[in-house]
Model the fold of this input.
Amino acid sequence: MSDAAYLFASVAMMAGVTYLIRMLPLAVFRKKIQNKFVLDFLYYVPYAVLSAMTIPAVFYSSNGLMSAAAGFLVAAVLAFFERGLLTVAVCACAGVFLVELVI
Done:
């Protein structure tokens, strides 16, 4: 199989998978969802997915686990006190930088 054919097949397959993932819920659930458990579950899915993608990236983005944990701790504390996203990001980066500087 040539590179162009392999690329085309890969793109076509991913387009099909993406289409199915978006189309199936619309086709299966025609009526409004009334179940409170399902509604609560669907409400928290975006937060869980975002956390599952972000948390590992936080800990593998710096040179050491200690500096990554310090940056995460700074970000978590500032987010708990409802600071803005830019403030949280800048302070977390500063925390990582300072710990890397000390180590």
Residues 75 and 81 are 10 Å apart (CA to CA). The longest helix spans residues 3-28.
